[in-house]
Amino acid sequence: MTLTEKDVRDIAEYARIGLTDEELSTMTVDLNNIIETLRPITEYELEGVEPTFHPIGSLSNVMREDEVGESFEREVALSNSDSTSEGCFEIPSILGEGGDR
Amino acid sequence: MNEYSQLGVRQIHEGLRAGNFSARELAASAFDAIDRLDSQVHAFLELTPELAYEQADAVDAAIAAGEPLGILAGVPIAFKDNMNLEGTHTTCASRMLETYVSPFTATCVAKALDAGSICLGKTNMDEFAFGSSTETSFFGKTHNPWDLDRVPGGSSGGSAAAVAAGMATLSLGSDTGGSIRQPGSFTGTVALKPSYGVVSRYGVVAFGSSLDQVGPFARSVEDAAFALNAISGRDPLDCTSQPRDIDYTANLDAGINGMRIGVVPSLLELDGLTNEVKHAFEQSVAKLEGLGAEIVEVELPNAAAAISAYYVLGPCEAFSNLSRFDSVRYGHHAHGKNLEQRYEDSRAQGFGPEAKRRIMLGAWLLASGVYDEYYIPAQKVRTLITADYTKAFEKVDAIVLPTSPRTAFKFGEVSDPASMYLSDIYTISINIAGNGGMNLPVALGEDSGLPIGLQIVGPQFKDENILRVGAALETLIDIPRVAPLEKGGRS
Amino acid sequence: MKELTEVLEDWEAVIGLEVHAELTTLKTKMFCSCPIEFGADPNTHTCPVCLGMPGALPVPNKAAIESIVLAGLATNCDIEKHTMFYRKGYFYPDMAKNFQTTQGPLAFCMRGHLDLELSAKGAAERVDIPKGEDGGYTTRIGITRIHMEEDAGKMTHLGGSEGRIDGAERSLVDYNRAGTPLIELVTEPDLRTPEEARAFMQKLRQIYLTLGISDCSMEEGSLRADGNVSLRRRGSTELGTKTELKNINSFKNLHDGLAYEICRQAEVLESGGVIRQETRHWEPGAKRTIVMRVKETADDYRMFPDPDLAPFDLTDEFIENVRAKLPELPDVKKARFMETYGLPAYDAGELAGDVEVAEFFEEAAQDTDAAVAKKIANLIINDVSAWANENATSISASQITPAALAKLAKLLADDTISSKQGKEVLAALIGEGIDPEEYVKSHGMEQTTDTGAIEAIVEELMAANPDKVEAYRGGKTGLQGFFMGQVMKQLGGQGNPKVISAIVTEKLEG
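^ Those are the sequences you sent over. The predicted structure of the assembly is below.
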């Protein structure tokens, strides 16, 4: 598996990371080097092995009761944004619709 | 004043009770040490003297009022800068969070402070914990107190250096693939990564959610156990935290006579394992045997697979966890003409190169098609590694390994990302399986003169075994607990 | 464009629905303890978790899991014991983490179905199946799954036209709604007409309301549907390219949007064009659908199991505890109303579909006979509902008590008052909460059923109009109406028509 600069450009677009042309070529080299070191994972004999997504032993069904707790004061909720208006987070214009919703 | 900041937890506790010094004097001594040393070490990103003195005064008031004193009361502590503490910056050593001020507090931090410890500040790290050297911090490198030309390890390099240099008695770090144990090894500190779920992750900025675990740095095994007692336990805010209530100091004096301790011969034949580390390891095993332990050979046949599994799972989880840094609610904010541009520019400017690499890698690995080829096999490898450990721990009570194949390296010495990854070979499989592991400083290298650590690994959720073995072996170790802070290495 | 029924002669429509319901009756959000409240000041119901602050972790709301299991049991689903939450990644500012926590290949509820009964009116669109005696038909709609997820925040677009995203200069984000528990039901592509889609939505809404898991307000968006539709020639079994209608917020829009889309697709296909896979938006004002987004490739959401949430392994005990909370469902209630009160299917169905109405009916109809029960049903279904709809209120918000409605029904059933008078009494009942019996008395409404008095009047009239009596007896039976009218006139309109009619006929026949 080798990524082209076009592939990396597409990934960057998806991951919302702007890359200059120079960064793009460095990134392409770096990613391909790393992917090469990951190759063994595609070669193990794993037939019949179940994946383990959660290394938590027998823990399951962890839930909380439906009881109201503390919410932020609005000023606190907004305190780390330098772009707010009318009690909301403000963002510039959006080009596309989001996802399949 | 210097000597106060080098005291252990028990000495502090007894000194406070005896009235030999006050908590305020302890705090002042710690900040004095930081003043003198941190310009060279750069362990701290933010200091919190106001909070510290307020806490110290509360401890002194409690003593004056004759109230019972918790064991951590008055103990100077520092927190890795990926742990939220309300009102402090939590930067993850990233430009992305340079101005972010926490509106809430991580459970581990809250528990440590509730136990009476005194917060000195927040410590340096690799950006978002991506690294093994603390060189990727946006705010500058941390220097190894044993040799200022060398890295302290990482990603919890600041927390390790703060304790090693005698600036803090305890610190907390986080470990995703070795980020507590490896800097522990490089700085000669006791550094414990508990089993996954023993300490709540709530409020600790996530890197690899199924791998991350918080643990303490200390200058003795007993201090690490005291710290773990304070921060561990089920947290209703973390679904993956374990409902366990254990006194980790309970069997520290029990010795290890009759305990079965595993060694893994195949892992001692790896390229890159230096002679001095291998030698120190063999000497440690001999000491364990001398203390009455039975040394048993065990196999971890899939340990090598752990590395590629780790470098699949870590970036996948990191990519997803770091998606939230989009400049809308918090974080670095570029002024794009539209939202898409603002996203791309904010993230391009806010994240450093290593963070970008991991995010990009994770985005690729999770893509449809690639996911089945890499992510699912990696989770299956996790099943095999877990089974390896389970099988090994049927035969032994603990396993010992080197922590790192070598001692601390010089700045810039290891720059190729792929070979940097290999330095985590002894630590990674333990995160994959979710077991606990601890670095115990056992020697100064016969060639380098730098600290060498032994890693003690326990069965999942039996971290008390680790501490028990560590406490026994520690009695036979005679190296300085506080780094000499020399430049240019030892002659 | 051709009419829908004409199109459906040649084409078969294949329709699937995705129905989102917010669990508005819960106290707190899906993964944090912030309260759920519609219309609160922006960003006042937020915390580290629902703002996606770094380090925050989700903890699932047990009541939400119970609610979805309840929904699954009520829609004949298998409850999947072993499931996990997944992260579904996409960048959008209303999603604080830039991923949505949802479920993966296995949802809590899988493989269910609902049976729809289409009345004669709704059945007209379905040309390909035989109808029953009443002109309706029954069809079973498969449910693929119901999964648990979280809602997004709310955005307000400023500077453009009418709050639309196109042309907006900036947008405001409010995360109060972010993290509201949401269940998404996905049907099999088993629906064939817009009426079936509407009937499915209505039935599902009735069920959710009966379960009490959502207020199902389509206006406020707590119940919303997406519809997928494709066409194929009658007789073909291949699936055509589908388009998707997004965020439909009323039953009428669901029906009309799908109907338009079917006709539009038919026109495109019949003129030799191809259908593009795209998302379209129904504009009720302009009565058309417009393109929102063309899907050239499948979206890649980078789904993977959420490591922050422990897996589920629901116990039998958990499921049985939920099952014990299952209320009587509309279908069962309908059958019982038919059996117990002798109601026709339509009446029973209308009453059973609304918990509040059904309760009201049962309270009113207790200790009455079938005739009175039928009158109660009529009053509720026709008059009270019309009033409640007009005034956007509900039966419980009126002055009517079940006992009072029962009294009114009895007055109607035993012909004490006419149905026209019944409406007047009902109006007074709704407005002022009067007692129907007293009202009828005090307004002199009681119909004369005094046969002696009526006989006297009839005899008097016959004596005064011998020619008309003669003509009647000679075969002009239509003259019965003349005598009836005269009697009624003399009684000032208060006579009981049935009684008068019987006496007039009897006397005239001699």
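Chain C touches chain B through 32 residues (CB under 8 Å). The first helix of chain C runs from residue 4 to 10.

Shout if you want it in another format.
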